[in-house]
Amino acid sequence: MLNNKVIVILGQTSTGKSNFAVEVAKQINGEIISADSRQVYKGMDLGTGKITKKEMRGVPHHLLDTYPPSKIFTVNQFQNNTAKKIEEIIKRGKVPIICGGTGFYIDAVVDGTIFPNVPPNKKLREELSGKSNEDILKILIKLDKNRAQNIDINNGVRLIRSIEIAEALGSVPETIKEKSKYQFLKIGLTLPPDILKERIKARLLSRIKKGMVKEIENLHKNGTSWKRLDSFGLEYRHVALYLQNKIKKDEMIEKLYTDIWHFAKRQITWFKRNKNTIWFDPREEKEKIKVLDKIQEFVK
Questions:
Q1: Whole-prediction pTM
Q2: DSSP state letters, 81-126
Q3: Closest listed residue to residue 167, CA positions, set 231, 232, 227, 119
Q4: Which of 279, 199, 277 is nearest to 13 (CA)?
Q5: Residue among 91, 224, 152, 30 nearest 140 (CA)
Q6: pLDDT tens, 150-171?
C-alpha cells in the first residue's frame, strides 16, 4: 500500500528538477505538486520558468496557475492545499511527488511546521504597500529583531506578513513542529557552481527570447501594479524597472543574472541544513540510476 509515501524533489533553480520529477512520475505512477511560491500564480509562466504542458508529458501537476497575481498566497495555504492534494493522489492509487525550489514551503510540509493563525490585516498591508523592502525591514527590526535576522529581505510579502504577525501577537512566535503521518524521501539535484552559472545565464536569455518581458508587461496592463511586481522579486523586479525606463535592457539582464545566481546560493544554503536529503548530479547517469532505484525501493 502506498498510503503514506511521498517523494520530495528539490534543488536550486536551473538544475532540472521539473524534468526529473516528470521522469520519476512516469516510472512510479506519480502526480506532481509544485512547491514554488511564484508558479502558483496565473500568467507568470516565462518569468518563473514554469513547466509547459508539453514538458509535463501527460503527468498531472497541481498548485500551478491557481491564484491571480493580485492575491497573496501564504505558506499556510500551501500547507493546506498540499495536504488535500496528497490525500487525493493517494486515494487514486498514485504516488505524490512534491517538486520545487521554495525550501520554506517544502520544510513547512515535511517538518509539519505550525504557523500562527493571524488573519490578514488589510489596513496594515495598504500602509506598507508603498514602502520599499528596506523600510519594511526596519519596521520589523523594531517589532521582532530575531525574526528580522532570519528572513529573506528580498521577499516583500514575507516581510509584511511577519509584521502582521508581530503586531498581532507581540512577536513572531517560535516554530512549533508536528510529526507528519507521511514518510518522505527527499532527493536533491545539485550541479557544480560553474555549470549552474552557465545554465542560469542560458535559461535567462532563452526566456527573454521567448517573450518574458512582454509577459510581464501584460501582467501590468491587466492590473498588476509595479509595486506588486516588485514584491515578486528577481525577474519581475528588474523587468518592471526596465519597462518603467529606469534601467537599460543590458543592465536589466546583467542585474538579473547576478541576482538569480545569489538566489541560487541562498537556496543551497537553505537546503543543505537538512542532512536527510539524497543529493546527486543529474548529468551523471550512474548516479541518476542509483537514485531512481532508491525511489523504487522506497515506494514498494
A1: 0.86
A2: HHHHHHHHHHHTT-EEEEEES-HHHHHHHHTTEEPP-----HHHHH
A3: 119
A4: 199
A5: 152
A6: 777 777 777 888 899 888 888 7
